[in-house]
Amino acid sequence: MKKLTLLLCLIWVGQVHAQTVITNIPGRNTFTLNGKWHYIIDPYETGYYDYRYKPYDANPHPYGGFFLDQHQTNKTQLIEYNFDKSPTLWVPGDWNSQDEKLLYYEGSIWYRKLFDYKKSNPNDRVFIHFGAVNYESDVYLNGKKLGKHIGGFTPFNYEITDLLKKDGKNSLVLKVDNKRHKEGVPTLNTDWWNYGGITRDVDVVEVPQTFISDYYIQLKKGSQKDVAGYVKLNGPNAANQTVQVSIPELKINKTFTTDENGKAAVDFQLKKAELWSPKHPKLYKVTVSNAGQSVSEPIGFRSIETKGTDILLNGKSMFLRGICIHEEMPMRGGRAYTESDARTLLNWAKELGCNYVRLAHYPHAENMIRLADKMGILVWEENPVYWTIDWSNPGTYKNAEHQLTDLITRDKNRASVIIWSMANETPVSDARTNFLRKLTQHARSMDSTRLISAALEVHGNNNRYDRIVEDPFAQYVDIINFNEYVGWYDGLPEKCDSINWIIKYNKPVMVSEFGGGALQGLHGDSLTRWSEEYQESIYKHTLPMLMKIPQFRGVTPWILCDFRSPKRVLPVTQDGWNRKGLIGQNGTKKKAFFVLQKFYKKMEEKDK
Ligand code: GCB
Q: Where is the Glycosyl hydrolases family 2 sugar binding domain (predicted)?
């Protein structure tokens, strides 16, 4: 009985939500938990609910709850699971592309990792940090619940200082559930694969008692020399402390003092700094320090704003030569997650002549954004508010706001990121516009320097060839972006030649999507659906059509690579893949790739 009480005490029934995210993980003292993790497929959530469907972590039971990671210690003991004897999955990585029987799986899978950890300093604090887990996760360390996290594409962490075993193995267990929900963000219906699992890096992060948890060091809106931002300390000695910000290459070394909440306002001038741009992606090593600790990372400085119908980067008008990208590797057919995956995708974008990418339709891995910083590629980042979100559900709004907060928190120091996108192709209604307006206000309150946009929709009228962009949400954005599919869902490619665009906003206009499907290697004439020639024809007719829009300032055709989608069921042609990529599932370029490449060469010449 005593043993039972002890065991029950070990189970912490309260629920802690993920704590404020620690930023700049690559710049910290970390220990990776990437590698092989044992897993148990649990479609009925037997490891979570008892037979009365009550969660074990709220109603502890000595043998229930896979998070206890128990082992049979005598021959009479009844335990109906065993992580040690279960197969393994690679983390990070989606489960769908690692085990054939999981390709279409949507449900719960338990993951378990055993690890030893010795602190480098006995007084330090220790956190466990997840780059992303899709979609919902319940996290337990040594049988205790750390919390629950919702949202498949943003980082979260939990403090584990007091739970770590001094000697012996720690057992880290996650229940990961990728079931879709009507009220979720995204919701039930999307045109991409619902890859489940621990899809990004897992790290143990060791920090001092009071540590630099976050900082924001960027040029002020509209300025090319004034830096503004903050440094935040977390811990018992966070208030009234001095913190330093230094940029040795610019001989800058400034001191600021934290307020009673541990936050210091940062304000200084850059003299003779080289501004970041796609042509010169200059990054400076910026170091933030306090009481003997320091955190560093490369940061670029640039200004981004709109003026009338122009987009100004460092004060100069530019055209954004872009492409949409899903976070997926064509040849492997799973989530992209390594830096080398990111490099493959961004190198293709560069080869196409891009200076800009739209990372659709959710936050991509941090290594993608950091690489874009280094390679000089501008970035659109997007919240997964897609199609028919449950607009009037306050919980759905909170969820969307939370995901956006975590995205901005993670990437606010990346010079490459110039646009926060609130949503994609959302149907106009008061509830929806209100939802997006609130999200926009929230984004601006966190980061006043970047531009706000969303991929809007196009409407027709009685005239067959009029196409109108008119949306009550347009008043809140800095750049009008819309998706159009003339030539694919809307007539044949030649229809583009007759379209009359009606866009009555005195703002820059960009086209966030256009395109059509082609099976790589399938040839026919330009009217044969799915042939490379049909897709090529769409590009040949669309680009001149868009050039007629006076405020046209950029475009991100749909899409760099073919990607998996369960909605695309046409045998032989689709087989579960959306074929609108300029590059096929096997990594081979289709004819349309070269049409866009030629157009971008011309646009680049013009920009010089
Ligand atoms: C769209 C969506 C995108 C789809 C694409 C398509 O408008 O924004 O997510 O994949 O159309 O292929 O139909």
A: 100-208
User: pLDDT per residue over 449-470, tens digit each?
Assistant: 999 999 999 999 999 999 999 9
CA angle, corner 8, sides to 4 and 14, nearest 5? Answer: 175
Ligand 1 centroid distance, CA of 191 (Å): 6
| CA 569 to ligand 1 centroid distance, Å | 15
DSSP state string for 335-391: E--SHHHHHHHHHHHHHHT-SEEEE-SSPPPHHHHHHHHHHT-EEEEE-S-BSS--T
Partners of 419 in beta bridges: 380, 451
pLDDT one-digit tens code per residue, 148-182: 999 999 999 999 999 999 888 999 999 999 999 99
Distance from residue 425's CA to the centre of ligand 1 (Å): 9
What is the tens place of the pLDDT at every residue in 11-67? Answer: 333 333 467 899 999 999 999 999 999 999 999 999 999 999 999 988 777 778 999
Residue-wise pLDDT for 423-436, tens only, equals 999 999 999 999 99
Q: Helix, strand or coil for residue 325?
A: strand
Map tokens 């004439």 to a residue.
525
Q: Which atom of ligand 1 is nearest to the CA of 361?
A: 9
- Regarding the beta carbon of 580 and ligand 1, being less than 6 Å apart is answered yes
Instruction: Write the CB contacts of 349 (distance below 8 Å, at least 6 apart in sequence).
Output: 323, 325, 357, 377, 560
Lowest mean pLDDT among 44-58, 434-448, 477-491: 44-58
Residue 15, pLDDT score: 37
Tokens of 186: 């995204």
Ligand 1, atom 7, lies closest to the CA of 483
- Cα gap 427→432, rounded to integer Å: 7
The response to whether residue 562 sits with its C-beta less than 6 Å from ligand 1 reads no
pLDDT above 50: residue 543: yes
CB 142 within 8 A of CB 68: no
Q: Quick check: 501 and 469 in contact, CB under 8 A?
A: yes
In this prediction the pTM is 0.96
Kindly give the number of the ligand 1 atom that is closest to the alpha carbon of 565. Answer: 10
Nearest CA to ligand 1 atom 4: 191
Cα–Cα nearest to 586, from 323, 329, 325: 329
Torsion of Cα atoms, 490 then 493 then 495 then 496, to 10°: 100
Which ipTM did the prediction report? 0.99
What SS3 string covers 326-350?
CCEECCCCEECCCHHHHHHHHHHHH
CB 84 within 8 A of CB 69: no
Contact 25, 205 (CB under 8 A): yes
Residue nearest atom 13 in ligand 1 by C-alpha distance:
191
Query: Which residue has a Cα nearest atom 3 of ligand 1?
Result: 191
The CB of 425 under 6 Å from ligand 1? The reply is: yes
Q: Does ligand 1 have an atom closer than 6 angstroms to the CB of 481?
A: no
Ligand 1 atom with least separation from CA of 563: 10
Query: Domains in the chain, start-ordered, CATH in brackets?
Result: 2-207 (2.60.120.260), 222-302 (2.60.40.10), 318-607 (3.20.20.80)
Ligand 1 and 191: CB distance under 6 A: yes
Average pLDDT over residues 213-241: 97
